[in-house]
Design a protein that fits this description.
Length: 272
Amino acid sequence: MSNLLSKYQKPNGEGLIQHITPENAGWKYVGFDAYQLTKGQTITLESGDRELCLVLIAGKAKITTSKESFGEIGQRMDVFEKIPAYSVYVPHDDKVVVEATTKLELAVCSAPSQGNLPARLIGPDDVSVEYRGKGRNKRHVQNILPETEPADSLLVVEVYTAEGDTSSYPSHKHDTASDTETYLEETYYHRLNPAQGFCLQRVYTDERDLDETMAVYDHDVVKVPRGYHPVAMLAGYDGYYLNVMAGPIRQWKFTWEDDHSWINTADYPKED
């Protein structure tokens, strides 16, 4: 199995199903945890020298930091309702307590932080929604923590892709520091509907010194340390993924792969 694919694990005592750190991923910036909590279950998180973005994938919770209490938040009970999530930004050197008030699927995104931003609620009205692509290359995007909103390192976005469509395509990369590209590590947390489905994700470089194609199932995580990373949905199964990106510069600048950039032109979709 590819070391870029982190398979779903049954919840441990704290409800943890995914645990990606810079150390076990072999990179410097992105961390990602996912939890499945039962109603009434409580977890406590310490941010340390990192900022956190807690995303309520599905369900409701009471969230309290050392200085703020957000009460009960959440409205999306199923991720495929396609409505923006409630999220909470937590700065470094803070503590956060999450109490699940319903069954809860929670994502905890993290990256290095040295700033002085306060904890804040990111409600559905704070999330911009857009539709990208055309033909069989379309997706529904919900921007939780884009570069236009305050954070030190994190970029967080949700993407929905319909059955038979592609996304994160045409193939693009963001693995070098240049005038046209920023270095950003990235994780993809995948959900499938119906849940027994799978999608395909490839991670590869121009030189093909990295070239992995993975069958990705519900609650799996794909790590993208470098290279291109398109996703393809199979017939009958809709897809969702939560993207977490971070790097030395908090800006999303990328390069299209030349061979496939024509998908962005008027030549696609082809006429019948």
